[in-house]
Design brief:
Blueprint: H1 14-24, H2 45-49, H3 70-82, H4 86-92, E1 94-95, E2 104-105, H5 108-111, H6 118-131, E3 143-145, E4 149-151, E5 154-158, E6 162-164, E7 167-168, H7 169-176, E8 186-194, E9 197-206
Antiparallel strand pairs: 1-2, 3-6, 4-5, 5-8, 6-7, 8-9
Helix pairs in contact: 1-6, 3-4
């Protein structure tokens, strides 16, 4: 698998290695935002200016697959992984900026089963599904976040502040990895706001 050829395979560095390793074997959402997320919604230009919108102005519409907050972007992304839903996983990601082009939402043409990268996306999701599998999984998957840091149009959260079915995501990834030397991984998830919606950006894993 060559994730670098797929602009929607935004997992970077050793986190890709963890996912790929878990495909071989590790050691032994719907469209509505998750109601448990606690971050505030991204402000629209009209809301931030303090002035009322013009009576005939069309309301700002969030892209169909984007989320209102960084928290709900992470929640949708993790739930797609735990459901092995390749299309929803793909749509939860932003295309990374490159060659002078800004980051952009993924499209169904890029995420559907007919796109040329679907098989490698499926392999990546399979690996992440195993790497993110908590010791006591529940149905449906529960995700709780705290400590999300927002920086304008970007945000980040560490794996210690993402709890999946009662377990910290950093602990879950560490328990499935053979590469940890210090016993725990350092996982950081990044989110990006495009217009009024939030998507997953890069993710980094260190040991």
């Amino acid at each position: 698998m060559t994730p670098s050829k797929n602009r929607l395979a935004v997992m970077t560095g050793s986190l890709v290695a963890v996912a790929v390793a878990c495909v071989a074997g590790c050691s032994g959402s719907d469209s509505k935002d998750d109601a448990s997320a606690t971050a505030g919604t991204a402000s629209s230009p009209a809301a931030s200016s303090g002035s009322p919108a013009a009576p005939n102005a069309a309301p700002t519409r969030r892209p169909r697959h984007g989320r209102k907050t960084p928290d709900t972007a992470v929640t949708a992304w993790i739930k797609a992984i735990m459901a092995n839903d390749v299309t929803k996983y793909c749509l939860a990601n932003a295309q990374p900026a490159s060659e002078g082009r800004p980051a952009a939402p993924a499209t169904m043409a890029q995420c559907g089963s007919k796109n040329p990268h679907h098989q490698e996306q499926a392999a990546l999701v399979k690996g992440l599904h195993t790497a993110f599998m908590p010791p006591h999984p529940t149905q449906p998957t529960t995700v709780a976040l705290s400590g999300v840091e927002k920086h304008g149009t970007t945000a980040e959260v560490t794996g210690d502040h993402v709890v999946v079915d009662g377990s910290k995501l950093s602990d879950i990834v560490s328990s499935h990895s053979k590469n940890t030397t210090s016993g725990r991984s350092k996982l950081t998830l990044e989110m990006v706001r495009i217009k009024s919606a939030w998507y997953m950006g890069d993710s980094h894993l260190g040991f």
